[in-house]
């Protein structure tokens, strides 16, 4: 609440803060990823979610003084031909059923085709979301082509907005983010404003793994445990795969961490995965390995390897 409202003065605040979720849909190759990166201004913006926000596959966040655009990932909308296709569609439905705005991307340099129409029709299934048509790659098209495409797009449905853009020349990107933000609900920021670099992020993830491992462990272990994130990989199914290691100092500790039949390690993985997903705001696959690094606390080389 701002001061004016608190005083009961009826004037509208000049600019209300808005925040919400947007998802870009469209055929493969129409420029969705490039647009996301161009809007966000860096490859992937990671932030720490505030507790009330649900977990989603966040691709990037546009932070502005007047609002926050949270761009969420969806796998493409496909005509389901396989079980995988159906599962992907179910995932699309879960995501798109939940966003505030859907940005339907169509390239300016190709005629509107059956693929575009199919996706456009599917958008009827998501009545909650506002719908914006985004004509991408205008740098590749003549003015005549652009006008033609805008007309065809206008015939598809009543859009909340239609915006031609180029992610390459950055033409109209600011207009697009203005338009998207105007369609978002009035809301305080949903994510912390500070950006966390990938490097810090790995450190934080490693710390969460270490915490999860310590949880329920005996007292003698804590100082003997360390964790590292060794590799990460974006998977086809939209999950982020994280490969991490837990280091122990003595052989006997390995068994403690792994537990009977691997039960302890599974619990650690489960707890850590929850925390990491909350940190990243997206679903992950976590692979944990327990490694023996003899007397690592006394070994400078080992300490270096563990980031101390
Ligand atoms: N000239 C031009 N090329 C662009 C623009 N935006 C994207 N491209 C190019 O179009 C191609 C596809 O872009 P992507 O962003 O990968 O498209 P996408 O829709 O995310 O593709 P999928 O991940 O397959 O769904 C890439 O070669 C981009 O460099 C643009 O504004 N202008």
UniProtKB/TrEMBL annotation:
Membrane topology summary: Peripheral membrane protein
Residues in KH type-2 domain copies: 217-294
Residues covered by region (G3): 73-76
Pfam families per the UniProt record, alphabetical: KH_2, MMR_HSR1
Annotated region described as G4, given as residue ranges: 136-139
Era-type G domain span: 18-186
Cross-referenced SUPFAM superfamilies: P-loop containing nucleoside triphosphate hydrolases, Prokaryotic type KH domain (KH-domain type II)
Region G2, residue ranges: 52-56
Location of region: G5: 165-167
InterPro entries for this protein: G_ERA_dom (IPR030388), GTP-bd (IPR006073), GTPase_Era-like (IPR005662), KH_dom-like_a/b (IPR015946), KH_dom_type_2 (IPR004044), KH_sf_prok-type (IPR009019), P-loop_NTPase (IPR027417), Small_GTP-bd (IPR005225)
Residue span of region G1: 26-33
Predominant place of localization: cytoplasm
Domain of life: Bacteria
Xref: PROSITE patterns: G_ERA (PS51713), KH_TYPE_2 (PS50823)
Swiss-Prot/TrEMBL keywords: Cell membrane, Cytoplasm, GTP-binding, Membrane, Nucleotide-binding, Ribosome biogenesis, RNA-binding, rRNA-binding
Chain positions recorded as GTP binding sites: 26-33, 73-77, 136-139
UniProt KW Transmembrane keyword: no
Record flagged with keyword Transmembrane helix: no
Biological function: An essential GTPase that binds both GDP and GTP, with rapid nucleotide exchange. Plays a role in 16S rRNA processing and 30S ribosomal subunit biogenesis and possibly also in cell cycle regulation and energy metabolism.
Classification via PANTHER family: GTPASE ERA (PTHR42698), GTPASE ERA, MITOCHONDRIAL (PTHR42698:SF1)
Family to which the UniProt record says this protein belongs: Belongs to the TRAFAC class TrmE-Era-EngA-EngB-Septin-like GTPase superfamily. Era GTPase family.
Subunit structure: Monomer.
Name the UniProt record assigns to this protein: GTPase Era
Natural source organism: Leucobacter iarius
């Amino acid at each position: 609440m701002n001061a004016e409202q608190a005083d009961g003065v009826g004037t509208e605040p000049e600019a209300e803060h808005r925040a919400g979720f947007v998802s870009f849909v469209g055929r493969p190759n129409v420029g969705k990823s490039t647009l996301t990166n161009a809007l966000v201004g860096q490859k992937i913006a990671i932030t720490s979610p505030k507790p009330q926000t649900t977990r989603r596959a966040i691709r990037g966040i546009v932070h502005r003084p007047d609002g926050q655009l949270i761009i969420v990932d969806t796998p493409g909308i496909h005509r389901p031909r396989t079980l995988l296709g159906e599962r992907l569609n179910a995932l699309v439905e879960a995501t798109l059923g939940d966003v505030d705005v859907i940005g339907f991307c169509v390239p300016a340099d190709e005629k509107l085709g059956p693929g575009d129409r199919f996706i456009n029709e599917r958008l009827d299934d998501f009545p909650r979301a506002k719908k914006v048509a985004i004509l991408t790659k205008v740098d590749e098209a003549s003015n005549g082509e652009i006008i033609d495409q805008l007309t065809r797009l206008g015939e598809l449905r009543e859009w909340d907005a239609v915006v031609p853009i180029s992610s390459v020349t950055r033409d109209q990107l600011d207009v697009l983010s203005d338009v998207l933000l105007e369609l978002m609900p009035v809301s305080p920021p949903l994510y912390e404003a500070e950006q966390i670099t990938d490097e810090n992020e790995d450190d934080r993830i490693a710390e969460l793994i270490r915490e999860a491992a310590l949880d329920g462990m005996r007292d003698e272990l804590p100082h003997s445990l360390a964790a590292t994130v060794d590799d990460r990989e974006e998977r086809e199914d939209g999950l982020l795969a994280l490969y991490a290691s837990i280091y122990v100092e003595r052989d006997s500790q390995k068994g403690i961490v792994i537990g009977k039949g691997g039960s302890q390690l599974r619990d650690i993985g489960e707890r850590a995965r929850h925390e990491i997903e909350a940190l990243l705001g997206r679903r992950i696959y976590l692979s944990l390995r327990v490694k023996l690094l003899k007397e690592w606390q006394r070994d400078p080389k080992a300490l270096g390897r563990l980031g101390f």
